[in-house]
Amino acid sequence: MQQLFIHEAPQKSRATFYVTDSSGKVKFVIEGKTHRLHDTLRLVNLDNVVLFKAEQRIITPFSTFDIYKGQQSSSIACFAKHPNFFNWQSPYYTLTPYDWKVTCDFKAEHYLMHNAHEQLLMEIRGCITSRGRQLLVLINSNEYAAIYSLLAVLIEHYAHNDLKEWEFKKKLSYDFGWLNFTKLSPKVPKS
Questions:
Q1: 15: nearest Cα among 37, 38, 42, 36
Q2: CA of 172: how far to CAs of 65, 82, 159, 185, in Å?
Q3: Three-state DSSP class for 90?
Q4: Which residues of the chain have pLDDT under 70?
Q5: How high is the pLDDT of residue 184?
Q6: What stretches of 59-173 adopt beta strand conformation (E)?
Q7: Residue 64 main-chain phi, psi, to 5 deg
Q8: CATH, residue 124
Q9: 178 domain-assigned
Q10: What is the pLDDT of residue 159?
């Protein structure tokens, strides 16, 4: 499997991610915004040609993105997050019509993408390097490196935010449902 590294450049107005190979050469740049309806992340090569873009179609805790190839006006796929009713901390993602499914382990920051025949296509791990926090993406085919990189950013972005929210909810001392995001009183350590 080939290794790609994805790290985020610190910017305030829009997200910029650099996709590098194992030797440190930049292969792709992913830039754009999310969290609002019709916000777009674009994946461009070094010649600034748009290879893929993901447009946010639905804003819910289980967001949906349309994937476009190049400058096409019709989407080639739909990337969606789904609830897992058996384990609420581990939702899964699908890419239709390709029948790719991503399973997650939030705490370990480990994500696996399989096709319909259960073949491993991509593995994503959060890691700390000398450049800071990065994603290590292991791919089985260089042919799909661009789309895998874009999907890795979407997966990690929403999974990472969910983990932070879950950890925050664990710290609440009281939970009245509608006050999920309001800290009423700190937990007092038992002595």
A1: 42
A2: 32, 26, 20, 8
A3: coil
A4: 11-13, 87-89, 106-107, 158-191
A5: 46
A6: 64-69, 77-82, 92-96, 100-105, 110-114, 120-129, 132-139
A7: -130, 135
A8: 2.40.160.200
A9: no
A10: 62
pTM of the model: 0.77
> Which tens digit of pLDDT belongs to each residue from 126-155?
877 777 778 889 998 888 899 999 998 888
Place of tokens 């929210």: 165
116/99 Cα distance (integer angstroms):
5
The structural domain count of the chain equals 1
Tokens coding 4: 């790609």
Which domain does 163 fall in, by range?
2-171
* Identity of residue 26: V
Supply the pLDDT for residue 54: 92
Residues in the chain: 191
Which amino acid is residue 104, in one-letter code? C
How far does CA 186 lie from the centroid of its chain? Answer: 31
Looking at residue 58, its pLDDT comes to 81
Contacting residues for 1 by C-beta, under 8 A, at least 6 apart: 123, 138, 139, 140
